[in-house]
Write a structure and sequence with these properties.
Order of helices and strands: HEEEEHEEEEEE
Number of domains: 1
Oligomer: single chain
Shape: elongated
Radius of gyration: 23 Å
Structural class: alpha+beta
Distance between the termini: 59 Å
Strand content: 35-45%
Length: 165
């Protein structure tokens, strides 16, 4: 999965669980009506030092048989959510902490992604257009497998014929 696909899955999941408009943070465009949630990808990191497996796929490139090696790595993506507006924005994020305990509620993220952790919810009001806007913020940690690959050298195969005298 690409980071865009992961972000899209998280936005879809958040929208279905909160019934709010969910947008990617720092996009150009008009601000949605309050309340809404913004999602920002902060970073990604490998969970383990080494891949759990390496998948080898035979393929043809420019008419030649080659092998694509894909290390299977567990990766964690760290997102920041901000809920903007409403009478109490913390109340929109609070139910997320309970529903992640129910595997059925992690759809449509499954099977490729799982919510590994949710941080505490923070009250972070911000001064916008000369007035205070209520906001709440929390971090979401998603885990999944990556299979980024590279072509590797292969041993050429030749037929050998042996003649006996």
């Amino acid at each position: 999965m690409t980071e865009d696909q992961i972000l899209e899955a998280l936005v879809k999941w958040l929208g279905s669980k909160t019934s709010l408009t969910v947008v990617q943070a720092y996009e150009n465009g008009d601000e949605p009506d309050l309340p809404y949630i913004t999602v920002a990808l902060l970073n990604m990191s490998d969970v383990r030092e080494n891949p759990s497996n390496i998948e080898y796929v035979n393929t043809v490139v420019s008419g030649e048989n080659v092998v694509l090696a894909k290390p299977v790595k567990e990766v964690e993506w760290h997102f920041s959510l901000q809920c903007h507006g409403g009478t109490q924005p913390l109340s929109y994020l609070r139910p997320l902490r309970s529903i992640i305990e129910l595997a059925q509620q992690q759809e449509p993220l499954f099977p490729g992604l799982t919510i590994h952790e949710l941080s505490q919810i923070r009250n972070v009001p911000e001064f916008v257009k000369e007035k205070w806007e209520k906001r709440a913020q929390m971090d979401v940690f998603l885990r999944g497998l990556t299979r980024d690959g590279a072509l590797i050298d292969v041993i050429e195969q030749h037929t050998i014929t042996v003649e006996t005298m």
